[in-house]
Design brief:
Blueprint (H helix, E strand, L loop, with lengths): L17 E6 L2 E6 L27 H11 L9 E5 L5 E11 L8 E7 L8 E4 L3 E7 L4 H6 L7 H8 L11 H10 L7 E4 L2 E4 L15 E4 L6 E2 L2 H10 L8 E6 L2 E7 L4 H12 L14 E10 L2 E11 L6 E3 L1 E4 L8 H16 L4 E2 L5 H21 L6 H8 L3 H10 L3 E4 L2 E4 L3 H11 L20
Parallel strand pairs: 2-9, 8-10, 16-18
Antiparallel strand pairs: 1-2, 3-4, 3-7, 4-5, 5-6, 8-9, 10-11, 12-13, 13-14, 14-15, 15-17, 19-20
C-alpha cells in the first residue's frame, strides 16, 4: 500500500520527551511523538494548570477584558495566544471547540493550531491556557506582533522539519482545502504499540466506531487494534505472531526486514496503512492493498521482532517507482532508519536489474532526504572512478534513474558544458567538500544478508 491521489480506493503515496512510569509493575515508555521540539525542564515535566494573565490596573483595560469575557465561548476561527508546553505563549487559531461534560454555558475546550508550527502539534487546550487579552477576530497583527519574540529557534524548527517528509503537491488548492476541513481534528490522540505510547500527529480514517476513542491499542505483531487495554491483553494471550507476517528477507545483527504481500495479508496491510496515516499528512488512504508489497523493518530481541518503520512499493510500476510510501515510527526516528529504508529500496532494484525512483510528487523535505542519498552514492563512485564515466553508467551501477543522477549532479554544479557536450567535473577537493556537507549515510545495508527474489505474479 502506498500513498497517492485523493480517492477512496485505499493507498498512501510519497513523503521528546520520554518518561518512565510503572503500570502494573511493568516499565512503560511513553513517547510524546510529534513534540520533539523543546526538551522539558531538567527536573519535572511542566504541567499547565491555571495560567494567570497579568491585568493592568487601567479601567479601560478592565472594561475591554470584561467585554471579551462576555464573548465566551470563543468562536471557531478566533486567533489568540496560547501557553504551550515550553511555558511560552504562541499564536494559535481555534479550529474546533467542544463543551466540557457537566460544564456551564461557557465551559468549552478548544482545538487549536499553532500557526508557527506544523499541523502535527495541533491539540485540545483548556480556556485557562489562552490569553484572552490577545483575542483577535478581525486582524491578526496584534497576536503575531505580541508573539514575535517567541518564535521557534532555528534548532527547534529543524527538529520539527527533519522528520516531516510528506508533501501536499498531489492536491490542488480546492482538494487541499477539502482535505484539511475533513481531517482538521485528530480523531485518535494516542496509540499504544508494543512498549511505547505514542502521541499521534494527524487524522486517520479509522472505521466510524473508533472515532470516539482518544487512544487505540495495537498488537505490535499483527497490527489489530482495539479500544481498551483489556482487549489487547486478551488478544496478546491468543496471538501466535512474534513478527510481521510474510517472509524474512534480511537479517543483520538485531535488524530484520520482512516482505509482506498485500494480497496475501490484506488485513495486516490495511491496518498498517491506518497506523501510518496517523503520522503522514496530506495523504489519501487506499484500501486496494493487493497491488502493493510492504517491507517492514524490525528490531529483534528475545520477545520478538518489533516494527520500527516500513516502505511500500507497487508490484508493477510503469514509471519505475521503487518506493511508494515510507515511514519511520516516531520513537525510532533520528536513528538512521529512514536512510536505511531508502537504501534498501535501491538494493531491491539492483536485484531486479532495474533502475528505480521514488513515487512522485516528493515534498521539499522528502526530496532533501533522497538528494542526500543520491549525493553520497554518486560521489563515492566518482571519487573511486579514475576514467570517464557517463550518466547512464552511473545509473546502471547504482539503480538510480538517469534523470535523478543528472538533477543531483547539476544541483551540485558538477556538470559542465565542454566542447559541445556536457561533462562531469569530478575534482577530488570539490567531491570531498560536497560529501562533508551531506553528512554520513547512517546504517548500511549488508547486501550479503539479503536473500530475496523479485516478485512474480502467481
Amino acid at each position: 500500500m502506498g500513498m497517492g491521489s485523493a480517492d477512496e480506493s485505499g493507498r498512501f503515496s510519497t513523503s521528546n520527551g520520554q518518561f518512565m512510569n510503572m503500570n502494573n509493575g511493568v516499565i512503560k515508555e511513553e513517547w510524546k511523538g510529534g513534540v520533539p521540539v523543546v526538551p522539558p525542564a531538567p527536573t519535572t515535566v511542566p504541567v499547565i494548570t491555571n495560567v494567570k494573565v497579568e491585568t493592568p490596573s487601567s479601567p479601560d483595560h478592565d472594561l475591554v477584558r470584561k467585554r471579551k469575557l462576555g464573548f465566551l465561548p470563543l468562536e471557531v476561527g478566533t486567533r489568540v495566544l496560547c501557553k504551550w508546553r515550553d511555558g511560552k505563549f504562541h499564536p494559535v487559531k481555534i479550529i474546533e471547540r467542544r463543551k466540557l461534560p457537566n460544564g456551564t454555558t461557557n465551559d468549552y475546550e478548544y482545538y487549536v493550531h499553532y500557526t508557527e508550527f506544523n499541523r502535527r502539534l495541533d491539540e485540545w487546550v483548556k480556556l485557562e491556557q489562552l490569553e484572552l487579552d490577545s483575542v483577535e477576530t478581525d486582524a491578526d497583527e496584534k497576536v503575531d506582533d505580541k508573539a514575535g519574540s517567541l518564535k521557534m529557534t532555528r534548532h527547534q524548527k529543524r527538529k520539527i522539519d527533519e522528520t516531516h517528509v510528506e508533501g501536499n503537491e498531489e492536491l490542488d488548492a480546492a482538494s487541499l482545502r477539502e482535505h484539511e476541513e475533513f481531517t482538521k481534528v485528530k480523531n485518535i490522540t494516542k496509540i499504544e504499540l508494543g512498549r511505547y505510547e505514542i502521541e499521534t500527529w494527524y487524522f486517520s480514517p479509522f472505521p466510524a466506531e473508533y472515532n470516539s476513542c482518544e487512544k487505540l491499542y495495537f498488537c505490535e505483531f499483527c497490527l489489530n487494534f482495539m479500544k481498551r487495554k483489556e482487549q489487547l491483553q486478551r488478544h496478546m494471550r491468543k496471538c501466535d505472531l512474534k513478527h510481521p507476517p510474510g517472509d524474512e528477507i534480511y537479517r543483520s545483527g538485531t535488524l530484520s526486514m520482512f516482505e509482506v504481500d498485500g494480497k496475501k495479508n490484506k488485513v495486516y496491510a490495511q491496518n498498517l496503512c491506518y497506523l501510518a496515516k496517523l503520522f503522514l499528512d496530506h495523504k489519501t488512504l487506499y484500501y486496494d492493498v493487493d497491488l502493493f508489497l510492504f517491507y517492514i523493518l524490525c528490531e529483534c530481541d528475545d520477545r520478538g521482532c518489533h516494527m520500527v518503520g516500513y516502505f511500500s512499493k507497487e508490484k508493477h510500476s510503469e514509471e519505475s517507482y521503487n518506493l511508494a510510501c515510507i515511514l519511520t515510527l516516531p520513537p525510532y526516528q533520528r536513528k538512521g532508519y529512514g536512510k536505511f529504508l531508502i537504501s534498501f529500496s535501491y538494493e531491491l532494484s539492483k536485484k531486479e536489474g532495474k533502475v528505480g525512483t521514488p513515487e512522485r510528487p516528493l515534498s521539499d523535505l522528502g526530496l532533501l532526504s533522497y538528494r542526500g542519498y543520491w549525493t553520497r552514492v554518486l560521489l563515492d563512485i566518482l571519487k573511486k572512478h579514475k576514467n570517464n564515466i557517463s550518466i547512464k553508467e552511473l545509473s546502471d551501477m547504482t539503480a538510480i534513474k538517469a534523470e535523478d543522477v543528472l538533477s543531483t549532479l547539476q544541483g551540485l554544479d558538477l556538470i559542465q558544458y565542454r566542447k559541445g557536450q556536457h561533462a562531469i567535473c569530478a575534482d577530488p577537493k570539490v567531491l570531498d567538500r560536497h560529501l562533508k556537507a551531506v553528512g554520513r549515510g547512517g546504517l548500511e545495508v549488508d547486501v550479503c544478508k539479503l536473500i530475496w527474489t523479485p516478485y512474480k505474479e502467481q
